[in-house]
């Protein structure tokens, strides 16, 4: 298996493609480690970090990255939290896992709705079907998904801050 290949839930989302609301542009596979290292060093201003603890899978229009934070040792990729590092320095844990992230998207929530408390877009029936296929029974209110992720990973901002120069 290709080490950059998406797990099934993200592969299903990648087939959907991109969305204007919530705004995201899926990659075909996880970003290559050398690309992640280049961008992460630029974003943090720190040549000593390489972002190896992340697997980025999409970008939003302003250039912010969304990906998995590989913090749950020994757990599958789908069980890792989904995080956002924005082009203007925004930092957020969006969801505790990929299934919860799919439900955020299905209900019109993307990085900007999480970080800026924007009004969400409409429910997207295609994204709802993807979430139902990959996280049946996982539908919750978006605010509850974000709140759980922030409670579970309260130090994410400090972890990233410690890497920045």
TrEMBL record:
Domain of life (superkingdom): Bacteria
Annotated protein name in UniProt: SMI1/KNR4 family protein
Species the sequence originates in: Lipingzhangella halophila
């Amino acid at each position: 298996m290709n080490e950059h290949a998406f797990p099934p839930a993200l592969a299903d989302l990648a087939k959907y493609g991109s969305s204007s609301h919530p705004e995201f542009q899926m990659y075909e596979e996880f970003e290559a480690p050398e690309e992640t290292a280049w961008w992460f060093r630029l974003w943090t201003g720190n040549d000593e970090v390489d972002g190896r603890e992340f697997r980025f899978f999409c970008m939003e229009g302003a250039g912010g990255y969304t990906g998995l934070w590989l913090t749950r040792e020994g757990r599958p990729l789908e069980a890792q939290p989904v995080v956002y590092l924005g082009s203007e320095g925004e930092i957020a844990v969006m969801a505790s896992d990929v299934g919860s992230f799919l439900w955020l998207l299905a209900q019109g929530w993307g990085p900007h709705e999480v970080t800026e408390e924007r009004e969400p877009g409409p429910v997207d029936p295609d994204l709802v079907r993807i979430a139902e296929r990959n996280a049946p029974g996982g539908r919750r209110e978006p605010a509850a998904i974000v709140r759980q992720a922030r409670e579970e990973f309260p130090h994410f901002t400090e972890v990233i801050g410690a890497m920045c120069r």
